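Entry type: protein chain
Record version: 2
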Amino acid sequence: MLHPDLAPRILTELHARLYLQIPALREALPRAERTGELPRLTQDSWFGYCHRPQQLRAELNAVRLEVADLVSVDVPALLMADITERMNDPVDRAIVLDAARALERIPEMLGIGPHLLATATGRR
């Protein structure tokens, strides 16, 4: 059984509260968590596919790429409602960036963030 992909719920409900603008989102989240597919819910909204970290690695390996690094780009930002204010203060900004570097590669944290970044090289 695949573990659910919780990034859409964390981003859309807990962080951005997008259910206030897009009520249909609440009904779409269980499917997104099961399948990774997040459908377009309004004419102007986005759609996407939410990779689990292991899925992204497997897809890259399937096309003969070796993953050199996999990071979660924005976990700290999701955890802070006041991220904009913190990034505008030099001391707070340094602390946020230090925390991001400390958290971005922790395997248990990768699936929390909605944006993964993989660096891969071709296999010989």
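Comment: The longest strand covers residues 65-72.
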